[in-house]
Design a protein that fits this description.
By secondary structure, the chain is α/β, with parallel strands linked by helices. It has a single domain, classed as Leucine Aminopeptidase, subunit E, domain 1 (3-Layer(aba) Sandwich), CATH 3.40.220.10. The chain is built from 5 helices and 6 strands; from the N terminus they run E-E-H-H-E-E-H-E-H-E-H. It has a 6-stranded mixed beta sheet, sandwiched between helices. Strand 5, helix 4 and strand 6 form a beta-alpha-beta unit.
């Protein structure tokens, strides 16, 4: 499976689906979730809330609204909105995202730094955990994971871990 690292916006990437580092309630207020909701539309959040509670370690897919993706994968890195997260929760969220994307037959997904914004997990810890989980995953349909973030330090940490 190919891993590509890019500096840029998650919303501008070419992929079947994007990953939202969510909370278990499906609320999309701050961070990446807020950006996805503002660009894609309220229906993304409404659908995520309907599928809540989403336990950490699982993921759900919703419409991508106005965004050019087949869907948005919501993978909680925290139970409560704006809660501090842990390396283990980030690992579980990444694994759940990959499993769901693969099960749905997607060939490519894009994910930002998971748990590094509102979740306050140090970027080096998150990057290592994310890259290890992606490398350990054995896909059936998934061919490419794009790691993309507007934060150049996050991008640098991914590159170091690859």
């Amino acid at each position: 499976m190919e891993i590509e690292v890019l500096l840029g916006s998650l919303l501008d990437v070419k992929a079947d689906a994007i990953v939202n580092p969510a909370n278990s309630y499906g609320y999309m207020g701050g961070g990446v979730a807020g950006v996805i909701k503002r660009a894609g539309g309220e229906e993304i959040e409404r659908e995520a809330i309907k599928k809540a509670p989403i336990p950490v370690g699982s993921a759900v897919i919703t419409t991508a609204g106005r965004l050019p993706f087949k869907g948005v994968i919501h993978a909680p890195t925290m139970e409560e909105p704006a809660m501090e997260t842990t390396e283990e929760k980030v690992r579980k969220a990444v694994r759940a995202s990959l499993e769901l994307a693969d099960k749905l037959g997607f060939e490519s997904i894009a994910m930002p730094g998971m748990g590094t914004g509102v979740g306050r997990l140090p970027k080096d810890i998150a990057a290592r955990a994310m890259v290890e989980e992606i490398k350990a995953f054995k896909p059936v349909s998934l061919k490419k994971v794009i790691l993309i973030d507007l934060d150049s330090q996050m991008v640098e940490e991914w590159r170091k871990n690859l």
